[in-house]
Structures are given as structure tokens and as C-alpha cells.
């Protein structure tokens, strides 16, 4: 009755947990939710009356121009015709999956990597081969080995404040990965939703800005630094890929919400953008530091972690590995939500004993209370 891919369709654990977090009093370390008090008030006066009509599949021309200008500012040589506005990053992942993946297609991801990307790739039948993350990113030599062993022609990476690990690739690793992709003819799909949430001095130049030969897709979003509810993100792609991505977009939803696009345009072109980002970084940096202190008090003897230089997450490795998925039902009953780490690993590179904890949504008091409950559950399970 259904297509064969439905057998590979799994429920999104992130969505399931977020539903549970709507319960009154729930302390959430689960999703990458912006702090409620950091969400701006929409400026509806910036939206032209024409936005009520159908629009171009590629996106509002003014927004595409603004995105291209912004991208050139971070090192990506592009023009507006290479920009495709999408309905959030998840649609971008869906379009790239449709373009490149058939049942059995080998591809490369980091291990761990973004859960929802894994779900999309595997839904279309990809065999995801994980390359382990180190403190400075993935090893370019290992990337070459896996690509040659598997004949993979697509790699998905999140070099800047990686989800879930918070890792930020070093400048040397970014250059090495770019050289490897160019040498192999490996199409690079770079996801960059957290780049504006930077708290320490690190290199954030996109890997795509270093490519000279191979095809590429660079993706970002307005969800983390502006408003997740407008569901507006964008792809920038090498010219050879753009016609295919546009046709896939047309076949999917015709065009992205035009009201949201104009709100995103107002955000990106606002004279107060730099001031807003400075405030946001300061607020989230303080929350990161508060979480770091609370983790030291509660998990100092049970886990290891690095302080993320940006983004929204801490990535904990338990000294005594347990399947953290087993903790989740009881934790939700006790009023605490978190993300088990096992679900972020491709099936070719499974690991256990990890947890992803968001720090942007909970208050410092909630952090302390929630971590106290979580650490007791870990202690009980680990014995």
C-alpha cells in the first residue's frame, strides 16, 4: 500500500520530547530552543501588501540579494542567483536528500551528527558512514579513506558549533577537509545554523569558502539568531546544482512563506543587527557559563565535556557508559527533558554513554534543579 521508504521512516525523538516539554513545570535541556525572552517582536509594518500573493520559488529577490551579500562577507563567493530560500533548515536537508540519495547510496557524516539530518538521509535510503569527531573536527585523512572505501560522493558536515557536540573545526582542519573534498570530487553539504552564536575567538570561515573544484551546498537558518517560528532558512549552492534544487523546491511547496521572508529580510538588513547579535551572544554566553558551573557541581565525577565556544549545547560523555535512552521515560516523569546521545550516531558508527544538554532555554535555577534530578538517575542506572 505504501512506498518502500515508509519502512525506514522513524518518529523524530526531538519532536516527541518537545511535545512532552509543553507540560507545566517541565525543565527542558532537550531541543535547541532559543530563550523565550530573547525572541524579538515581529515588525509587521515591514511586509509589503504584495506578500499576500504567490511568490517566486527561489525566494524574495530582496532577501536573496541580502543573503548573498552576507555570505560574501563570511568568505563565500556567490551571487543572488545561487541562493534558494527554504522553509527552515529541515527542508534544505530534504531537498539535498532528494537530489543525491537513492536506496543504498553511500554518504559520509560526522559521528555524531544532527539527528534530523540522519533521519532524512536514511529515509531516502542512504547508508551513512560516520567519521569520528575530534576536538578540532573530523580527520581529513580518515575522510579520504572512508570516501574511497565506500565510493561516497556526498558528505554532510556541521563545522561551526557542531550539533550535538559543540565542536568548532580549526582553521587547519577546515582547509584540510576542503582539499580532500576537492581531490575526491566529494560534494560537500555544509550546515551552518549556529555561526552567529559565537562566544569565544574561533575560526568560523565556511569550508565551502575554501573549495575550488567540487560541487557544494552551504545552508543556514534564521531560527537560532532570529525567530524559529517563521521557518525561513536558505541554501547557497554551486551553479551546477541550483537548477535541480529549484525544481525540487517547486515540486515540494512552490515557495516559502513570504511574510516570514520579509521578516527575515528586515532582520538581516536592520541597522541594529550587530547590536542585537552582540546582546544575544552576551546573554547566551552567560547561560553557557552558568551551565558549565552547574555541570561541574553535579557531573564533575561522572562525565567529561568541553566548554562549547558557541552554539546551544553541551555534549557529555559518561565515564561509565550506559544507554542514555533508557533514562528518558523516567526523566520525563520527573519533569526533566534531555536528548540521549545514542540517536546522533549513524548506524555504521554506534556509540553509547553520551547526552546532549541545551543551555539556552532553562534559567540558572532550573539548570541546577534539573541537573540534580538527572545526575541521580545516571547514578542509579550506572550503579
Structural description of this entry:
The protein is of the alpha/beta class and 383 residues long. It has two domains: 145 residues, Aspartate Aminotransferase, domain 1 (Alpha-Beta Complex), CATH 3.90.1150.10; 226 residues, Type I PLP-dependent aspartate aminotransferase-like (Major domain) (Aspartate Aminotransferase, domain 2, 3-Layer(aba) Sandwich). Helices cover 37% and strands 15% of the residues. It is built from eleven helices and 14 strands. The strands form three sheets. It has an eight-stranded mixed sheet, sandwiched between helices. Helix 3 packs parallel to helix 4, helix 3 packs across helix 7 and helix 9 runs parallel beside helix 11. The longest helix has 27 residues. The chain starts with 12 loop residues before the first helix and ends with a helix. 45% of the residues are buried.
Number of helical segments? 11
CATH class descriptor of the largest domain: Alpha Beta
Radius of gyration: 20 Å
Relative strand content: 15-25%
Overall mean pLDDT stands at 94
The run of helices and strands is HEHEHEHEEHEHEEEHHHEEHEEEH
Query: What form results from the Cα inertia axes?
Result: globular
Strand order of the largest sheet: 2-9-8-7-6-3-4-5
- Find the count of extended strands (DSSP E, 2+ residues): 14
Helix percent band: 25-40%
CATH superfamily of the largest domain: Type I PLP-dependent aspartate aminotransferase-like (Major domain)
How far do the termini sit from each other?
47 Å
Largest sheet features: 8 strands, mixed
Amino acid at each position: 500500500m505504501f512506498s518502500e521508504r515508509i519502512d525506514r521512516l522513524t518518529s523524530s525523538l526531538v519532536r516527541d520530547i518537545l511535545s512532552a516539554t509543553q507540560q507545566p513545570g517541565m525543565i527542558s535541556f532537550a531541543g535547541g530552543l532559543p530563550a523565550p525572552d530573547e525572541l524579538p517582536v515581529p515588525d509587521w509594518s515591514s511586509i509589503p501588501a504584495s506578500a499576500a500573493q504567490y511568490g517566486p520559488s527561489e525566494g524574495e529577490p530582496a532577501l536573496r540579494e541580502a543573503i548573498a551579500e552576507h555570505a560574501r562577507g563570511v568568505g563565500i563567493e556567490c551571487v543572488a542567483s545561487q541562493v534558494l530560500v527554504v522553509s527552515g533548515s529541515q527542508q534544505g536537508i530534504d531537498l539535498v536528500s532528494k537530489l543525491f540519495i537513492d536506496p543504498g547510496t553511500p554518504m559520509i557524516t560526522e559521528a555524531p551528527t544532527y539527528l534530523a539530518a540522519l533521519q532524512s538521509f536514511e529515509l531516502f535510503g542512504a547508508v551513512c558512514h560516520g567519521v569520528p569527531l575530534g576536538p578540532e573536527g573530523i580527520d581529513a585523512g580518515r575522510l579520504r579513506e572512508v570516501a574511497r572505501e565506500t565510493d561516497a560522493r556526498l558528505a554532510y558536515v556541521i563545522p561551526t558549533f557542531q550539533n550535538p557536540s559543540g565542536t568548532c573545526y580549526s582553521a587547519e582542519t577546515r582547509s584540510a577537509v576542503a582539499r580532500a573534498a576537492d581531490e575526491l570530487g566529494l560534494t560537500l553539504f555544509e550546515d551552518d545554523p549556529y555561526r552567529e552564536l559565537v562566544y569565544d575567538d574561533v575560526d568560523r570561515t565556511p569550508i565551502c569558502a575554501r573549495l575550488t573544484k567540487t560541487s557544494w551546498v552551504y545552508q543556514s537558518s534564521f531560527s537560532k539568531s532570529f525567530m524559529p517560528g517563521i521557518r525561513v532558512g536558505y541554501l547557497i549552492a554551486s551553479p551546477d546544482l541550483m537548477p535541480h534544487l529549484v525544481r525540487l523546491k517547486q515540486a515540494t511547496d512552490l515557495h516559502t512563506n513570504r511574510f516570514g521572508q520579509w521578516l527575515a529580510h528586515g532582520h538581516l538588513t536592520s541597522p541594529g543587527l550587530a547590536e542585537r547579535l552582540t546582546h544575544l551572544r552576551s546573554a547566551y554566553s552567560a547561560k553557557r557559563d552558568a551551565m558549565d558551573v552547574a555541570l561541574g557541581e553535579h557531573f564533575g565525577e561522572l562525565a567529561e565535556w568541553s566548554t562549547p565556544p558557541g552554539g546551544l549545547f553541551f555534549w557529555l560523555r559518561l565515564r561509565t557508559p550506559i544507554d542514555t535512552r533508557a533514562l528518558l521515560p523516567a526523566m520525563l516523569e520527573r519533569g526533566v527533558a534531555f536528548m540521549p546521545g545514542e540517536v546522533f550516531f549513524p548506524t555504521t558508527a554506534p556509540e553509547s554513554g553520551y547526552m546532549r544538554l541545551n543551555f539556552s532555554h532553562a534559567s540558572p535555577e532550573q539548570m541546577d534543579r534539573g541537573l540534580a534530578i538527572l545526575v541521580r538517575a545516571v547514578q542509579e542506572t550506572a550503579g
